[in-house]
User: Fold these one by one.
Assistant:
Number 1:
Amino acid sequence: MADTITVQDLVKRYGDLSAVDGVSFTVGQGEFFGILGPNGAGKTTCLEIVEGLREPDSGTVTVLGEKPWPRNTRLLPRIGVQLQASSFFERLTAREQLETFAAIYGVGPSRVDEMLELVALTDKAKVQTEKLSGGQAQRLSIACALIHDPEVVFLDEPSAALDPQARRNLWDVLREINARGKTIVLTTHYMDEAEILCDRVAIMDRGKILEMGAPADLVRALDRPVVISVESRDLPEDTATGLPGVDAVVSTGGWTEITTTAPAVVLPALAERGALTGLQVKGSTLEDVFLDLTGREYRA
Ligand SMILES: Nc1ncnc2c1ncn2[C@@H]1O[C@H](COP(=O)(O)OP(=O)(O)OP(=O)(O)O)[C@@H](O)[C@H]1O
């Protein structure tokens, strides 16, 4: 996969604070890359440098083979940027916003309908942006960032402040954009969002990348036991304790919870006893990876 973005030894200081402290990563063409970390980790600063909106103190960045700083007008038609706070032209409808962005980029109006459809706002085309819900406004702002059909899309915390349903709708939109071949770089402080959407994530904390890789690989590398829960009426605690592969058992609130490093042994044993009612299997998540790396609970 060709590298669409390269970042090498990036540093940005604000006075004594190293907001970005020696960050390096690459993003391949068509990749969905996430920069994940708690508030103040340095995600936005990093992204804004890559977008060409901020000057780094040191380090090198290329986007599509070009240097984004000083402001590189050759890159502007090729990248789409959605900033953390979306701002629209006042009192325009959703369609008029998109038409305005289309005109700025010299794009024909036919893209407007396509974009409204992509972000599921066709039925809100005539609604003024001030009257859109938070999720609808976020989707419109993504449509504006995509109107000129850029190759690379940067999204800064696109699902911040959205309710769970709106977040899921947004995820569908982002998946669709990525399926159309766009390279996406997204910052988020939602671990689940990064885990679900991203091919690879860089976990940032205090200006540094602590770990980078495919979410499933990062979780697998932890090599932690899984917890298998079934209803206790099918499987009392003492029966569970005697099953092969079981490390520990806890019975609580009608559930028997089995901790095991050998789920492939425990699950068939449960199936043999017909004890699969309410089955849940909980593995580790990126939150556990963060805890493992920092010794701190993840608090976005
Ligand atoms: N213009 C600035 N001047 C001084 N300090 C800044 C400036 N911008 C950011 N910072 C500081 O740099 C650090 C990194 O901020 P940044 O916004 O990049 O983090 P973030 O990971 O994007 O956080 P959030 O999720 O809250 O947006 C923070 O401590 C922030 O207070």
Number 2:
Amino acid sequence: MRDALDLELASLTKRYGAAAAVDAVSHVFASGRYCCLLGPSGCGKSTTLRMIAGHETATSGDIVLGADNITHAPPAARGTAMMFQSYALFPHLSVWENVAFSLKMKGVEKNERRRRAMTLLEMVEIAPMAERRPAQLSGGQQQRVALARALITEPRVLLLDEPLSALDPFLRVRMRVELKRLQRELGVTFIHVTHGQDEAMALSDDIIVMNGGRIEQSGSPREVFDAPRTEFVARFMGGHNVLANGAGKIAVRADRTRLSRSGEGALSATVTGAEFQGTVVIVAMRAADGAELSATLSDAAFYADPFDPGATVTVGWDHADQHALAG
Ligand SMILES: Nc1ncnc2c1ncn2[C@@H]1O[C@H](COP(=O)(O)OP(=O)(O)OP(=O)(O)O)[C@@H](O)[C@H]1O
């Protein structure tokens, strides 16, 4: 059953010359959810987002928000708002004036503009900096201003293009918690473009994995991670071994892959290295057929009986932990 504010893409296509950057993509973004468009560079995620925002014209297909076909509507009349990667704040305006800018364009009077801007600045927790200029803020603070500025138009869908990529790793994790909190508080649909699978898994209610201008798989983070449908998704999400298995290929999670020095197991491999990552150790191996494999072991299990590079190991897993991948 479609919700009144779902956003539907129907065979949405963008061609540049003969090449399709976005190739007949159909998807329903359920309203009020945190959605991540995830995929490698060039897969068409930003083009998809820009078409939803109205900053790029669709070659064919439709974009429908609730009851409205917004495919050809101007950006400001769509019910969407975009937060840009480069925050694009006006340097000569104060923080609150930046946030209130679109209200000024609409002719809203000054006291009301300020009141609404301050409400949003409180929500993103930088109200005390309302009178500063953007240059007097840190990158993380500028981003909060950009977020408040996008939200002041009361969009039904907020579009975010790699919003965390300019931040250092520590701030990135903090802002990601903030984004999730804001989305929950507002109940607005967020569509967030990222090429980071960790980011997508941490934030999303729904992950949409793109590859070559198409949607490869969509679902909850657990669905996509636990049951990758294709080799591309298994490799892109990481943490899986992809193995040839008679008729086709299978995926097995690296943390469900067992190693032993001999005995029962599906195949034999040579250890090529071990990477200590704090709580776990990732053991890298090469199978007899040349396939690169890995096993994630707890640090306690690994150090109780370490595998040295060059060691021959037997690799095994439970049958229930293997997933057949689509051709
Ligand atoms: N204006 C343009 N003219 C021609 N080709 C373009 C244009 N914009 C994008 N493309 C091509 O369309 C494809 C998809 O680009 P897009 O920017 O949507 O990818 P992306 O997944 O967002 O990548 P990234 O993560 O690097 O931003 C790429 O092959 C890109 O080269």
